[in-house]
Design brief:
Elements (H helix, E strand, L loop, with lengths): L1 E10 L2 E11 L4 E5 L6 H8 L7 E6 L2 E2 L8 E4 L11 H11 L4 H14 L15 H13 L5 E5 L7 H16 L3 E5 L3 H7 L2 E6 L2 E7 H8 L3 E7 L9 E8 L4 E7 L5 H9 L4 E7 L4 H13 L2
Parallel strand pairs: 3-8, 3-9, 6-7, 7-8
Antiparallel strand pairs: 1-2, 1-4, 4-5, 9-10, 11-13, 11-14, 12-13
Helix pairs in contact: 2-3
Length: 302
């Protein structure tokens, strides 16, 4: 759906992005990751046509993006901004009309969202009367009210308590189910684990890795197995090494590093030949947070 092809952005001698290419599939959630200053915000601003790349182009549905493309985007920036002296309903109507909705359409859609979030009583309040979390809800509504084909969310859970953060997560998943393509830029790796189908990691203006989330886990995560057992663990270094071993209440637990080129099947065959009483064996799923730290550290050393 969206392709960023060979994007470079220079500010004088400084390259904020250096030949970065992304392919963002239709109807999926795409995680745009990276440490502060990596170039994520610059890429988002280029997609939004807030700024123009020095080199490269952005395509939407196979066509080079133009100013009309912006109407198809919903953009929630990290730096929130609402007019504090305006009433909430008045401001939401204004923003919805800017996105091309008629007065009747805007009010109908906004009233629906206000009911969904349980904030009907806020319509005539001034923005300055709202808490940070309340203002976040209002800004999220303004981002999605026109049913954008592409939704760009920059740290959307910032300022929310766990309950309201989960409410927003649920709405993001519903929008995906309805066919919206979503770019999620966040430092919250738990959100990436829960929401993202694909990711791209940018560091120091360059693309470090991109692909399906599960494929990235498989390629860059540690190849480890958790074993619960009773008995004496024997060495089997040709198949695995013991990274961690601890005594639990009624059994022992070990984390095994599988030797390069071998699989879970090889570990099971090796364990079957021992006298251990095996309680459970499971492949440990690598955490995106650990992969993020590993890849950023490795790219910084290059």
């Amino acid at each position: 759906m969206l392709e960023c092809k060979n994007i470079t952005k220079r500010f004088g001698d400084f390259a904020a992005l250096d030949n970065v290419s992304l392919q963002i599939p239709d109807g999926q959630i795409f995680g745009l990751l990276g440490p502060n200053g990596a170039g994520k915000t610059t890429m988002i601003r280029i997609i939004n046509r807030i700024t123009i790349p020095t080199e490269g182009r952005v395509f939407f549905d196979g066509k080079v993006v133009d100013d009309d493309f912006v109407r198809k985007i919903g953009y929630l920036p990290e730096e929130r901004g609402l007019y504090k002296k305006m009433k909430v309903g008045e401001q939401m109507m204004y923003l919805a009309r800017l996105k091309g909705l008629s007065k009747a359409e805007a009010e109908a859609q906004l009233r629906k969202w206000f009911v969904k979030f349980g904030i009907q009583s806020w319509w005539n309040k001034k923005v300055e009367e709202l808490s940070k979390g309340m203002a976040q809800k209002v800004q999220f509504i303004s981002t999605v009210v026109h049913k954008p084909k592409l939704l760009i969310l920059d740290e959307p859970f910032s300022g929310f308590d766990p309950v309201n953060a989960q409410t927003i997560r649920n709405e993001i998943l519903k929008l995906k189910d309805e066919g919206t393509t979503i770019i999620l830029s966040t430092h919250n790796m738990e959100s990436v684990e829960e929401l993202c189908d694909n990711i791209a990691l940018i560091n120091k203006s360059r693309l470090v890795v991109t692909g399906a989330t599960d494929d990235v886990r498989e390629q860059y995560g540690s190849n480890q197995v958790e074993l619960l057992y009773r008995g004496e663990m024997a060495k089997c270094e040709e198949v695995f090494s013991v990274a961690l071993q601890e005594q639990l209440r009624d059994c022992s637990r070990a984390v095994l590093d599988i030797a390069e080129g071998l699989s879970m099947k090889d570990v099971l065959s090796s364990l079957a030949a021992t006298d251990l009483e095996i309680i459970s064996v499971r492949k440990m799923v690598p955490r995106m947070n650990d992969i993020f730290i590993k890849l950023v550290s490795e790219s910084a050393q290059k």
